[in-house]
UniProtKB/TrEMBL annotation:
Its main location: membrane. InterPro entries: Tmem135, TMEM135_N. The keyword RNA-binding does not apply. Belongs to the TMEM135 family. It comes from the Eukaryota. It is found in: Endomembrane system. This is Transmembrane protein 135 N-terminal domain-containing protein. It is a multi-pass membrane protein. Residues 18-145 form the Transmembrane protein 135 N-terminal domain. Pfam families: TMEM135_C_rich (PF15982).
Length: 391
């Protein structure tokens, strides 16, 4: 489907009934709500179960403590509430605004403003997770704008460009993470790996490397652990949606399902190997070693190339750098800039899913489809029919 411009929307959709635009499963705004709310609960619970399973796998031994499971359970409920509120309230606001504007839709009031307002539900997430969600949506927004620019004739971001972006982002990110190592509270950041603190040189220290034991074992353990995590995530994505037919799900495993595992394993293995090499060669540890180590580790991106991932490495590095800017009072702390940015991102992306699907990131498709338990697909199909019949 072609992008629906403001002019086309105003000409075709302004006087369309909301049952065609926001809730095609029922003509009544009120009667459409129970089914929407029910599916929003079910869909959000399913969607976040996979995300939290991945986080549990990545936390590893930290999940041995009971309080960690309690905290994870609380966070899961809060995230599910976020998904439910955004999914269910957004269409309600769209219908309400339409009534207030004389039973008319406008390009900005159809989905952008309703879901931007729903962005305020980000406060349902605890502060430690809020930044992670905001960072994700910023990545998606950048990915969307890159695709829009490519469509307009600007140079395409090739796989080589994406790889170099990821290598540079990993280099800066690991360096800034090691600089933060001595802080009591690190900046909340959901990344593949948290590097060890810089080891201070002492006379009692036998090895300059930031770990205990032999380097070979340290590198191999990192590769094996994260290979397992990547494989677990891939298999969870494959098996959980087909849990009713487990034999069929297992028999559908292919070599492509090992790409994420190879990416995770090699990414951590190369990073650790380079840091250990530099520590032993120089005789001491330094945060600067993370620059070449992160850059070299970034070549593992070729196992699992993704524009979103390459963008994420750079924005994660900027997030850590922004912490320094806040500490130096360069950025104002009395204005909720990250939350306001999230509102804009959510409104833009959810609107793009319907009116500009060709450029919208695939994650947004999956997010809306999963959290609405498929109802967003009904909305898109009905909206497409309205456009198709008009042109």
């Amino acid at each position: 489907m072609v992008v629906v411009s403001k002019q086309l929307f105003d000409a075709v959709c302004r006087d369309a009934h909301c049952s065609l635009m926001t809730h095609p499963w029922n003509e009544s705004c009120i009667k459409a709500c129970p089914g929407l709310y029910k599916d929003a609960v079910i869909g959000s619970a399913k969607f976040y179960s996979i995300i939290y399973l991945a986080q549990i796998l990545m936390r590893g031994k930290k999940m041995m403590k009971k309080e960690q499971w309690i905290k994870m359970g609380e966070y899961y409920v809060r995230s599910t509430m976020l998904g439910f509120m955004v999914t269910s309230v957004g269409p309600n606001i769209s219908c309400l605004i339409r009534k207030m504007l004389g039973d008319q839709f406008y390009s900005s009031t159809y989905l952008f403003i309703p879901f931007a307002v729903c962005g305020l539900f980000i406060y349902l997430e605890p502060p430690s997770r809020r930044g992670l969600v905001i960072n994700l949506f910023c990545n998606l927004l950048i990915e969307y704008y890159i695709k829009v620019l490519e469509r307009a004739g600007y140079p395409t971001v090739t796989r080589t460009h994406q790889t170099l972006m990821f290598m540079l982002g990993s280099s800066l990110l690991f360096y800034l993470m090691r600089l933060e190592g001595d802080k009591k509270e690190r900046t909340p950041l959901f990344w593949l790996f948290t590097p060890e603190k810089v080891k201070r040189k002492t006379t009692e220290s036998e090895s300059p490397c930031p770990h205990k034991g032999k380097c070979e074992k340290y590198v191999a353990k990192g590769f094996a652990t994260y290979f397992g995590v990547g494989l677990g995530i891939s298999l969870a994505r494959l098996i959980i949606p087909k849990i009713s037919t487990p034999i069929k799900a297992i028999s559908s495993i292919r070599s492509k399902h090992f790409k994420l595992a190879m990416f995770f394993g090699s990414y951590i293995g190369i990073y650790r190997a380079v840091v250990c090499y530099l520590c032993r060669k120089q005789g001491f540890d330094s945060a600067l070693y993370a620059l070449p180590a992160g850059y070299a580790a970034g070549i593992s991106f070729l196992f699992n190339p993704s524009l979103g991932l390459s963008i994420a490495s750079l924005t994660a590095a900027f997030k850590l750098y922004s912490t320094i800017l806040y500490e130096k009072k360069i950025l104002p702390s009395n204005i909720p800039l990250p939350e306001l940015l999230y509102c804009f991102c959510q409104g833009t992306l959810f609107n793009a899913r319907i009116v500009d699907p060709d450029a919208c990131p695939s994650y947004v498709f999956n997010l809306m489809k999963s959290c609405s338990n498929g109802r967003s697909e009904h909305v898109f199909k009905s909206f497409s029919e309205v456009i198709r019949h008009a042109i």
